[in-house]
């Protein structure tokens, strides 16, 4: 019988070899710690405390870790586990919401010191093309009537603004009011004009406004029969330069020569919009001033076939996400017309989703029809047809997710003797504000309460009686006022929007109330 074990039971010594134990050296090799007898006789005795040397392992053998190595490995594993745990803890702490601890900045509400109030009026009604030798010549068609004063019952200081490009007595008016020391004095002025000439006829009313560094005009067109004249006044004593940007079907453009239009001090410049926005049916103009603020407005007139069909003078507006246009009064043949008599024009400088709502004036504030949902493309004006509204008074609200400018065009009809008006958006009025009512038919103050609570508004006629008007949240009222008088509207702590309007079967006009220029809102200062 063979002495070899089966193949599967043999141990491959090249793969695994047991480590010799120090106390039992392998028989095939002499132990290093056991010297021969001759060596013992010759060598001196070694100290008993000396530990025997560890035999060197054979090649390919698996070494067992020493206690020191086991200790080092354990410490390494423990350190790695601790580091991983710290990373997990920091990551988890970052994911958990931390307490929101904020220290509000120190803020002071400062009331600006009162300063001089400067108001610029539009001047006389102008006609274009009456001179057969010069079709571009502007001439005076009719002088306007002005109502002005301050809250103490005194007359305002006034002088003239020259119009060098207009023939005739074309000077516009500038009104000024100084404060009484540290006490502000409110000032107000407005104008109106009625014309019945063969080439221009209708009624228009406007408020005299303080100058601004930026103005937006939403209105006018350049179709056949339409005439528009941009009025830019510099009521200050420093030169101004304006840039005129036209928004139309191709977006924003600056016409040649409109990059830097000089406006000398105490001067009003009249520019036909046909030369600025030629071919645009629904233009919007932006006037940006440098050097000195200016007052911008648009005078327009319309002729259908050979019949004059109205005039208007409209003030500039300011961009806002919410635009409220009160006092749109539908009168005369417009109340039974088949065609649209009311159109809103809108413009945003960025894409916007807009909701246009028409509500009746009165205690119920009933919404007329379904609100119009429209999308505005950045820089492109859009007109929204509000339809043929029944006779009455309405408030148009334009609500957007981006700032925009808006105005509403409304006409009394489409035949001879008709008139039209551009109703501009009204800004918020939160403090007592003085306003002047010029001459005109059916004068009324329209007030909208855009707040969430009922408002009590006090309307006081200068030198006359006062009246408290209750307005529910979200509703509007119309209060008759007397032409040629000054009034003060006190919102009583609420925030309202208001306009002064005029209407008859053959005349319509309107202008929005602005906050009192003599009493600017407090300014928040962060020291």
From TrEMBL:
Q: Which UniProt keywords apply?
A: Membrane, Transmembrane, Transmembrane helix
Q: What is the superkingdom listed in this entry's lineage?
A: Bacteria
Record-annotated membrane-spanning stretches: 72-98
One Pfam family in the UniProt entry: DUF5719
Question: Low complexity: which segments have biased composition?
Answer: 17-57
As recorded in UniProt, coiled-coil segments are none
Q: Give the matching InterPro entries.
A: DUF5719
Give the residue ranges for region: Disordered.
1-64, 142-170
- According to UniProt, the name of this protein is Large extracellular alpha-helical protein
Q: What is the protein's species of origin?
A: Microbacterium stercoris
